[in-house]
Design goal:
Blueprint: H1 7-14, H2 19-22, E1 45-50, H3 55-63, E2 67-73, H4 77-86, E3 92-94, H5 97-103, E4 108-111, H6 118-127, E5 131-134, H7 142-155, E6 159-161, H8 169-179, E7 186-192, H9 213-217, H10 249-260, E8 269-275, E9 288-294, E10 300-304, E11 315-320, E12 323-327, E13 332-333, H11 335-338, H12 373-383, H13 391-410, E14 414-417, E15 422-424, H14 428-431
Parallel strand pairs: 1-2, 1-4, 2-3, 4-5, 5-6, 7-10
Antiparallel strand pairs: 7-11, 8-9, 8-14, 9-10, 11-12, 12-13, 14-15
Helix pairs in contact: 6-7, 7-13, 8-10, 10-13
Length: 446
């Protein structure tokens, strides 16, 4: 495997270090169109919320124009009581979300719990007849995603994943331009993300009285309580998440694969390097990481880490035979973007919903307007159309993140069959077992 390129060399060669300058002035695109809102009380959702610390509360606030919070579940008593006070003080509260699903009349479930709980919570909710908005990443393992796609299809429920960059005007425009040929034939996509947080060793501590630690751990191994394992910092432990590869990666790699046109497929080769910390009772995600993917159409996707908080460098670069463009949450830049002033995209270029609309035309939603992410979910729960961050495309995006982490672990160039969703070739026997993880009894995803 080739050595990981030096970060400075990479930044110089791709112009990430000065993307907003080298690619020309950035363009502010139009604000998202407001989605349809309920016109009568009968059209409003009855909402059940799971996991209310951090992002759980954020998505609940975004859902308030479309429904009312009926029930709240969180394994931390303080968090669930604070959440009830924040959202009207009338919601029923539960420690165990399964009790909430059984006892409450609900239309939709919002999931803001840690990553290792996402799949089981979605499975339980759709099997209970609920539509679901789940935070990204959708899964902890590739096999979880395969099961989710099957069950969501069987139940016919609407599932929107919180990969909201798909509803952001800048990212939508970037992908539309790539698909419309505005940079020529796509050859390479580069994603620059953040460094993983390092820390430890951490001391064990008594389990807080308000926290059900056993329930928080769920399918993961039962270990002594360490405060840094829970709440926001869970993402720096591979038992619960995948570091930046599944955090920022669930956003940026999703956009990259969407632009490549492989949102229902995946790469055919993966190679990666990583250096891991050796800190007892410390964060165990990679200190440094680098991944490279190749697709059947010849497009190369490269992933590199970068200093956290450097928003000009954090983003996605599309490069083609006729130009390049850069996009992140602050800018969309490049000569092809400037040319939009005199050569706008035709409306027929907007062919971007996250599913195969040729295979399922009857489930095709509107694509001629950009809508906010929660509003798109609301519209789809009413129309029964497929949302923009549907379960299939988001399983494939999460798989892309997992494939990178698996290649880092195996330490060899891997071949992947995206149709069969299996590793092939000489390293398959080492790589395929990483598609799943052992799960604690009573918390299995089945």
């Amino acid at each position: 495997m080739p050595a990981q390129p030096h970060r400075r060399q990479f930044l110089q060669s791709t112009a990430f270090a000065s993307a907003a300058i080298a690619l020309g002035p950035f363009v502010h695109v139009a604000s998202a169109q407001e989605p349809t809102e309920p016109t009568s009380p009968n059209e409003r959702w009855r909402i059940g919320c799971i996991g209310m610390r951090y992002q759980g509360s954020v998505i609940t606030r975004e859902a308030l124009p479309y429904g009312d919070v009926v029930a709240i579940s969180d394994v931390d008593k303080n968090v669930r009581e604070q959440a009830r006070a924040s959202f009207g003080s009338t919601a029923a509260i539960y420690e165990n979300y399964r009790d909430m699903l059984e006892k409450q009349k609900l239309d939709v479930i919002l999931i803001g719990a840690p990553d290792h709980w996402h799949t089981k919570m979605v499975l339980d909710a759709v099997r209970a007849g609920k539509d679901v908005y789940c935070e990204k990443p959708l899964t902890l393992t590739i096999d979880e995603g395969k099961l989710l796609c099957k069950v969501v299809e069987e139940t016919g429920r609407v599932v929107q994943v919180g990969s909201w960059q798909r509803s952001d005007a800048r990212f939508r425009q970037a992908v539309e331009m790539v698909h419309a040929g505005r940079i020529g034939k796509l050859e390479k996509v580069t994603v620059l993300m953040g460094k993983n947080t390092q820390g430890g060793p951490f001391e064990t501590a008594p389990i807080p009285k308000q926290l059900n630690w056993n329930l928080w751990q769920g399918q993961t191994p039962d270990v002594p309580y360490i405060p840094e394992r829970s709440h926001y910092t869970f993402r720096w432990w591979y038992a619960y998440s995948g570091g930046e590869m599944t955090d920022t990666g669930a956003h940026h790699l999703d956009i990259a694969q969407w632009g490549i046109g492989a949102q229902h497929s995946g790469p055919v080769e993966i190679e990666a390097t990583a250096k891991y910390p050796d800190v007892p009772n410390g964060y165990d995600v990679a200190v440094d990481y680098h991944a490279k993917y190749r697709y059947a159409n010849g497009v190369e996707l490269e992933v590199l880490d970068s200093p956290r908080g450097d928003h000009n460098r954090n983003g996605v670069m599309f490069e083609g035979t006729g130009g390049r463009l850069f996009v992140n949450r602050g800018v969309i830049a490049g000569k092809p973007v400037e040319e939009l002033a005199t050569k706008p995209l035709p409306r027929e270029a907007f062919q971007l919903y996250g599913y195969d609309n040729t295979a399922r035309p009857e489930r095709m939603g509107k694509i001629d307007a950009i809508k906010n992410h929660m509003g798109n979910f609301y519209d789809c729960t009413k129309s029964r159309k497929t949302p923009i961050s549907d379960v299939v495309s988001q399983h494939r995006s999460a798989s892309l993140c997992h494939l990178g982490n698996i290649a880092m672990r195996v330490g060899a160039k891997l071949t992947w069959d995206p149709a069969a969703e299996q590793f092939t070739g000489e390293h398959a026997a080492r790589a395929n077992p990483h598609q799943s993880r052992e799960q604690r009894s009573g918390f299995e995803t089945v």
